Amino acid sequence: MSYLTMALIAFVLLVLDASLGGLLTLGSVRPSLTLPFVVYVGLLRGPVPGTLFGAALGLGADVLGALPLGATSFAYSVVGFACGKLWREGAFRLMWPWGTFLFGGAVFSELVAHYLVSRGTGLALGPLLLTSGLPAALYTSVLGLLWFLSPLHRVRGT
Q: Within 10 A of 130 (CB to CB), how many other CB atoms are there?
């Protein structure tokens, strides 16, 4: 898959996340449609492209979302880097299943988002994370596992 194709898919996912993401909301739990693609790029291409795609896709999500500019970009770039680094270039190669990388990335992304929300509103981080953060990470992971059932999840060249 070329970088142009991946950029086009990222743009389509960003538009779908902004427009149709509200339809998938269950109470206060909203999944991310873009995070599975960041994990995929990190696993497929390595840490540097994972970081760059994560930062660009996160910046687009920040522009369209309610978090401060750069919050999602930071979380997605760390997730893209970590997935690429642990999969390919780590001191020991981690061959975990797709869902493990996706759930770890979703938990980290929700932790960053809910930390910023708790700091801005004065609410306690623990209950906020337990009531909406972890369920959102689980929901994102379950939806991302649908990606696993598609042929797009296959990582080539490793």
A: 12
Length of the chain: 158
**Three-class DSSP category at 123:** coil
For residue 55 the two structure tokens come to 């930062």
Among the residues of 3-46, which ranges form H helices? Answer: 3-20, 35-45
The interaxial angle of helices 35-45 and 3-20, nearest 10 deg, is: 160
Q: Report pLDDT digits (tens) over 58-91.
A: 999 889 876 788 889 999 999 999 998 888 766 5
What's the whole-model pTM score? 0.84
Nearest CA to 17 out of 76, 44, 57 is that of: 57
Exposed, middle or buried by CB within 10 Å (0-12, 13-18, 19+), for 17? buried
Residue 26: beta bridge partners?
29
pLDDT at 94: 63
List, for residues 88-117, the tens digit of each pLDDT value.
Answer: 766 556 667 778 889 999 999 999 988 988
Query: Do the Cβ atoms of 118 and 128 come closer than 8 Å?
Result: yes
**Can you tell me the distance from the alpha carbon of 61 to that of 112, in angstroms, rounded to the nearest whole number?**
14
- For residue 63, give the 3-state DSSP assignment: helix
